[in-house]
Amino acid sequence: MDALEIARWQFGITTVYHFMMVPLTIGLGLVVAVIQTLWYRTGKPEYLRMTKFWGKLFLINFIMGVATGIVQEFQFGMAWSEYSRFVGDVFGAPLAMEALLAFFVESTFLGLWIFGWKQLKPGVHLACLWIAVIGSVFSAYFILVANSWMQHPVGVELINGRPVMTDAWAVFTNNTALVAFPHTLFGALAVAGGFLLGIAWYHLWRRRHDGIDTVGADGKVIPGEAAISGRDRTDHTVWIRSLRIGAVVAMVSFAGTALTGDIQGKLMFEQQPMKMAAAEAACHDGTGFSVLSVGNLGSKNCDDIVALIEVPGILSFLANGDFTTEVKGVNSLLGEYQAKYGTTLPDNPIYGDRAGTEIQYVPVMEVTYWGFRMMIGFGGIAAFAALLALWVTRKGTVPASRGLMRLAVFGILAPFGANAAGWIFTEMGRQPFVVAPNPDFAGVDQVFMFTAAAVSPGVSAAEILTSLVVLTAIYAVLLVVEVKLLVKYVRGGVVSAMPELAHAGAAGKGGDDTPPGDGTPGDVLAFAY
């Protein structure tokens, strides 16, 4: 057992799991804020119902994200102490601002929003949600500033072997962060769009399956009403509008991720050429983009890879914006990296038994190549599904097919898969560096750190393995809890987030125009918990 490899597995598992909650929290928070704004401006009951239903799911995901995110900080100290020492002078500022400013604002105003339905004026209550959501966006930016510095270190000087921040403005306006930020936001909105689309499709299908909604001779929906509280004509409006909002958000987000991804790719060719060459399986210099390449699984030799389908000029466009400039391949870059950073790890106690071993500058090609394509593929599938959903529901409801309903629900996972694949590619493609060198002559090229030097020297492989097993087990339990809660409240529909509808319906008052806070005495706590 190697402590470094186990520590990497632990960090990968816990971080990817935590990141499943992050894009949904950011994207769904923005969508809920817009929907509540529509309710505030129009007073229409469907927007109130949408706010409370989607807001309930947003809260479940938010608190689970907080719980799983806390573990990341402990990991740095436990398994990555050398890394923490190396980046501490730089990371202190963005991470402190994330925790003390952004997250403090986010959690405080979210609490006011949760418990302020009756106590606050509608405008103030809406402002609380917007402030909380904006806080989450700033929180994401500060985290991206820290991560982008690892990808492209700027604004520091190397003093006694450690980088010390000398230009905070350069760190916070790192061009890598400025491009990664909108790319991440669009990715988060894509997750939210797919989430709305899949769940709304399920409820529209249920209304047809239960005979509440029917379809006329012209193919248009005829919304009906059921004796069950909350399943009235307004309920139909809730789901069809949620579906169409989700579809539009998903398509716009895919376009946004494609545009920002193109800019991000060009930066990667400049800043981390080996990562992007490996992502394209470009072993040799050229201009062609690999549509499909194959090679020996696990091989460290790039020459084993054969391009079966290749489009000339596209790789040059991705790298430089033209179709003729030759792009360096893995084999050319490998010699440059070895000449600049050495062929073996230094004979230094910090590397332990790994000192003197050969440095693998080529990342795992299977991960970078297919991770890059999974990111684009899952995103494209989600966007196409959204376009198809808009066309299929143009007459006000979804088909009666159970199979299509299940496909729509499972389609929720596609943008999650795109986000996860993108981050796995970004982080694993940087190897063997945990802090990648800055290749810019005006940058700070001497500031870099091999991953082999970042692991805690005083922690054994058995100890890290134990924590890996324990954390993975805890996260598995948390996953079951979150999925069970989400499924419970999704199946319960709007009434699960608005018990006042059931109370009003039982009293024979209807529910369409029931303002918040006029239901059961404990309705605010019911919404929160």
From TrEMBL:
It is found in: Cell membrane. Signal peptide: none annotated. GO terms for biological process: aerobic electron transport chain. PANTHER family: CYTOCHROME BD UBIQUINOL OXIDASE SUBUNIT 1, CYTOCHROME D UBIQUINOL OXIDASE. GO terms for molecular function: electron transfer activity; heme binding; metal ion binding; oxidoreductase activity, acting on diphenols and related substances as donors, oxygen as acceptor. The keyword Metal-binding applies. GO terms for cellular component: cytochrome complex; plasma membrane. It is a multi-pass membrane protein. Belongs to the cytochrome ubiquinol oxidase subunit 1 family. It comes from the Bacteria. This is Cytochrome ubiquinol oxidase subunit I. Its main location: membrane. Keywords: Cell membrane, Electron transport, Heme, Iron, Membrane, Metal-binding, Transmembrane, Transmembrane helix, Transport. The chain crosses the membrane at residues 20-41, 53-71, 91-115, 127-150, 185-204, 238-259, 370-392, 404-425, 464-481.
